[in-house]
Write a structure and sequence with these properties.
Length: about 500
């Protein structure tokens, strides 16, 4: 039997902090009576006063009319005692992130509310299954995971624990839509969808920093070139290194210390040193007055270096793109489309698209370049040269990459460079999440685009790439580092075989 939550259902929001206040605002704007409760004295009254200012701001910007704002505000009732909320048909809990405290609250609420009331938790990291343990009706508890700031972020992860009744999850799914959100179903596993799939965005780049392969501003520029709004280092500085580190640790611990999620010593050192990012004035970057954030040099076109024989190798989109760029630069070349690799040979030198192996493994006069995604000319693109190449090889490779329309960024000869490594690992993590029933492919794509503003979802990248090539990159990473971290998702490996046959 389906359950529906109408506008007439009174909503009790417990916890009037950052998230609770935002949830109260959108519920009231959607027409519900909202009881707002917090154990801290005056917190719910103060939160309502702040919301009055927020709504006033929306009115003055013309985003909301004055009477709608007034009515929404009128629906919010700050409470000093929970008992007064006994008529609520839905609770959204947004209190401190502590299992015992949350369990205690829900037990107390079961004694107060009708047995049909739905109990939702906004926890970002605690198991919904564990919160429900000990309740009289655990099947009515569900995760309703909003993102910060609640009124602006569209995503809601609707998280089902082992005992959550599907009808309860469905009711919250529909309610989220009615509140103007985009809900995605998730199974209660560590990190749910977004906080799990996003881990490699931080971890792989922290690993590159640990190896001193590249500078933070270069990493950031190369990932911005792919369409990420912020590179991993600037994003960790914004989130707070301490917060990001604690999410990583909780996902790592909750996965029985799986090496896939191992935290980084680079991040731990920053946290230990109180370098939390923007909020403390220093993190990967220095935000104190008078400091200047380093930036990569801007793109400069290059003259075509002298060469007797230029050949394009491969037939994938990157090979086609190289051929087009050479034609545009009026370079005469031949095309070896059946070549075993993708890239360019210039006399005895090779400039190869990374397949996950370092340049040093591939030969002497070899440079590897990162996966170009954006079609924009002048985008930052990492490259590395073999440790046996001549002294001029880096200049030579950079000059040809400029001819091809890229802004080349030299880095150490690290397998799969930056973009290919990061995207392969994001796709691999998403593939595992789908295989383990955490979410659907479409759910993962929507969650990553709406929850953390990714330019595309992992399965959208996969559709435009090639599962076989991603598996090859991961296998090469695994062979190089000899660690469990790069083990290929069974889902992805099977997908690659399916493509071959
Ligand atoms: P917050 O510290 O801003 O607010 C928490 C509020 O809960 C405080 O006002 C506190 O006084 C109150 N509180 C604590 N224990 C209580 C209790 N037993 N009963 C009633 N009120 C109590 O925290 P927040 O950032 O709003 O986070 C709240 C919840 O939302 C946490 O579970 C957190 O993991 C989750 N969450 C946070 C974010 C985020 O970006 N901040 C995003 C998604 C989910």
């Amino acid at each position: 039997m389906s359950i529906s939550i109408s506008k007439d259902t009174a909503v009790l929001v417990v916890g009037a902090g950052i998230m609770g206040a935002g949830i109260a605002q959108i519920a009231a704007q959607a027409g519900h009576t909202v009881f707002l409760f917090d154990t801290k004295e005056n917190a719910s009254v103060d939160a309502k006063a702040k919301l009055a200012k927020t709504l006033e701001g929306l009115v003055s910007k013309g985003k909301l009319d004055a009477s709608t704002a007034e009515q929404a505000l009128g629906r919010i009732q700050p409470l000093s005692e929970l008992d007064k909320a006994s008529s609520a048909g839905l609770v959204v809990e947004a209190i401190i992130e502590n299992l015992e405290v949350k369990r205690g609250l829900f037990k107390q609420l079961e004694g107060l509310l009708g047995k049909d009331a739905i109990l939702a938790t906004n926890t970002s990291s605690i198991s919904v299954t564990a919160i429900a343990n000990g309740l009289q009706y655990p099947e009515r508890l569900v995760g309703m995971h909003f993102f910060n700031p609640v009124p602006l972020m569209k995503l809601v992860e609707v998280v089902s624990g082992l005992q959550t009744k599907p009808e309860v999850a469905e009711a919250i799914f529909e309610l989220s839509k009615a509140w103007g959100k985009v809900p995605v179903h998730a199974r209660s596993t560590p990190g749910f969808i977004v906080n799990r799939i996003a881990r490699p965005y931080y971890a792989e780049n922290l690993a590159l920093l640990h190896e001193q392969a590249v500078q933070p501003h270069v990493l950031d520029a190369c990932l911005r070139a792919v369409g990420f709004r912020m590179g991993p280092c600037e994003l960790m500085d914004l989130i707070g290194l301490d917060t990001n580190y604690s999410v990583t640790r909780s996902v790592y611990e909750a996965n029985f210390f799986d090496k896939r999620y191992v935290p980084s010593a680079v991040q731990r050192d920053l946290v230990d040193g109180g370098l939390f990012g923007r909020k403390s004035g220093q993190g990967f970057y220095d935000y104190r007055e008078g400091t200047v954030k380093p930036e990569i040099t801007s793109f400069a076109p290059a003259d075509v270096p002298a060469a007797d024989k230029v050949q394009v190798h491969g037939k994938c989109v990157v090979a086609k793109r190289l051929a087009e760029a050479l034609t545009a630069a009026k370079v005469s070349f031949t095309h070896e489309s059946e070549s075993a690799w993708t890239g360019l040979s210039i006399d005895d030198a090779q400039l190869r698209l990374t397949d996950g192996r370092p340049a040093s493994q591939l030969g002497k006069e070899v440079a590897v370049f990162d996966l170009p995604i954006s079609k924009e000319p002048g985008q930052a693109l990492a490259f590395a040269v073999s440790n046996r190449a001549s002294a001029e090889a880096a200049d030579y490779a950079a000059a040809w990459l400029r001819v091809l329309g890229f802004n080349p960024q030299p880095m150490a000869d690290s397998p799969a460079l930056i973009v290919a490594r990061t995207l392969s690992m994001l796709i691999n993590e998403a593939a595992d999440a789908v295989q383990q029933g955490v979410c659907s492919e479409a759910g993962a794509d929507a969650a990553m685009k709406l929850g953390v503003n990714y330019p595309a979802g992992p399965f959208e990248w996969l559709a435009n790439w090639d599962a076989g090539k991603i598996v090859q990159i991961l296998d090469h990473l695994e062979a190089f580092y000899r660690g469990e971290r790069y083990r290929v998702s069974p889902w992805l490996r099977l997908k690659a075989w399916q493509e071959v046959v």
